[in-house]
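Hi L.,

You mentioned the student needs an example of a multi-chain input paired with its predicted structure. This one should do, with 366 residues in total across all chains.
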Amino acid sequence: MHCSIAQAVGVLGEPWTPLILRDLFLGLSRFDELAEDLGISRNLLTRRLEHLVAAGVVERRPYQERPVRYAYELTQAGRDVVPALFTLMAWGDRWATPPGGPPALLVHSCGERFTPVVTCPHCGGEANADTVTPVAGPGAAQGPGTMVLAAPLAGAGGGRESDPVGHLVARVPDGLGQVDQGQ
Amino acid sequence: MHCSIAQAVGVLGEPWTPLILRDLFLGLSRFDELAEDLGISRNLLTRRLEHLVAAGVVERRPYQERPVRYAYELTQAGRDVVPALFTLMAWGDRWATPPGGPPALLVHSCGERFTPVVTCPHCGGEANADTVTPVAGPGAAQGPGTMVLAAPLAGAGGGRESDPVGHLVARVPDGLGQVDQGQ
DNA sequence: TGACATAAGTTCACTTTATCAACCCACTAA
DNA sequence: TTAGTGGGTTGATAAAGTGAACTTATGTCA
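Structure written out for the whole complex:
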C-alpha cells in the first residue's frame, strides 16, 4: 500500500514485533532470552526475527563460533524505531495504564523523568492532531490507502464538517522533493 | 501482559487499526468510506471499529435518523494517538519510503513542513535510543514481558556489553507515583 | 407503483496465520 | 557417556482474515 504508515506497520506492526524491539532495546540479545521473556512460541520468534533482519531493522551477528551462536541487535533503523516505541508507551500509560501504575518510566540524559512529546523541530511546538496538517507529498498517488489524500487534499473538501486538510494545500512550501532526514 | 507498550499494541496494533485511525484523522468518518479507501473486508472493519469503540479510541455517533446512519470519530484518546502515527510515518518515510518519495508531508501550525521529533519536555532535547533510559516504575512486576525489567533493572547487569540500564536505577528521582500526564 | 440506489452492516465458505508442544542438531562440560 | 545449552524445525490444531453475496431500512427517480 502506498502510504508511509502502512509501510511502517508492515515492518513493525506484526503481533510481537514491537515487544521484540523493546526487549532488544533493553539489552536482551539472544534467542532464548527473547523467547523466555515474551513467552512467544519459538517458531514464531524465528519468523519475526527473520522478517526484521530482512527489513534491516535487526542484525543477526555470530558472537561465538564452535558452536555458532547468534546475537540479535538493533541496526540504526532499529534504533530509530525506539522513539516511536516511547510515544506508544506514553499513550499506553495515559490511556491504558496497567493496574498499579506504569511498569516503566523514562529518564532523559538531562536527568529528568519525562513523558515523551512529539514536536516540530523548527519551532519546538507540540505536534498533535490540532496543530498538524498532512498534505500530499511527491509520492502521492491514487489507490487503496491514498484515495483519502487524493480526495480531501485535492482542495474540494466536500463540505464535511471537520475537514482539517483541504484549505491548507495552498500553504505548502515549495521544494517538496525530499523530507528532512534529521540527525 | 504487564507493559504499557503491550497495552498500547493490544489496542492499536491490530492489522488495520493504524490505517483506520489515520483515515479518521484525515477526515473520513463513514463506514463505506473507510471500507472503500482501505480495501479492507467489511466484516473485519466492523470488528475493528467495535474494538476501537470499546477501547474508547473511537466514538460511533448517529449523524442522521430515518434511516439511522453512523459516523465514526476520534475521541480524545484517539486524537492522542495521532502523534504516534506521525512518528511511525516519519520512520516509514526514512527507512521504507515508497517509490517516488513520501506520499504525504506534515505541516505544523507554525507554517513549516517538518519531520516530527520526539523530545523531552523538560530540556527540549531529543529522546532517542541514545539519550533515554527506562527504569522500573511503580507498576513494575515480574512475568512475561517484564522479566526483562526485573533482571537488568535490578542493577546486577550481568556484564552484557551494552546494558544501558543497570547503572542508572539509582538516579531515578523520588515520587514515582504517577507519570506526568502532560497536556 | 415499481425499480434502483445508499449506508451500514451480516453471513458464510475459504484461506492464511498463529500457537503449542515436541523434536533435532552441534557442540560443551563433567 | 551422559546430560545440558543454544538455536532452531516440524506438524497438528486453533484463531483470524478475505471476498462475495445477502439483509434491512429508507429515499429517489420516472
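You could point out the following to them. Residues 135-171 of chain A form one domain. Strands of chain A lie at 58-64, 69-74, 104-108, 113-114, 117-119, 132-136.

Best wishes,
N.
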